[in-house]
Amino acid sequence: MGGLETKAIIEINQAANQFQSSIVIQVGMRFIDVKSILGLSVTLFNNQTYKLDIQGPDEEEAIEVLKGIFDKHGLKITLK
């Protein structure tokens, strides 16, 4: 089970923090705030699929940006 590179985690976290919207990923029964770098660093692995839930005033833009970053790093996501 290989963890993600630090660079990927930082890129996801920095992108999420640009938005006002709430951005949460679900992994199994756990919900992680994508704006928490610590939460991301112990959660993201290449071999999982994540449910991405984005809600707020700039959610459409946040979805576009984060989908692109997750794809760039080979992470599978579904949108809630």
Automatic annotation (TrEMBL):
Transmembrane segments: none annotated. This is HPr family phosphocarrier protein. It comes from Paenibacillus violae. Pfam families: PTS-HPr. It comes from the Bacteria. Residues 3-70 form the HPr domain. InterPro entries: HPr-like, HPr-like_sf.
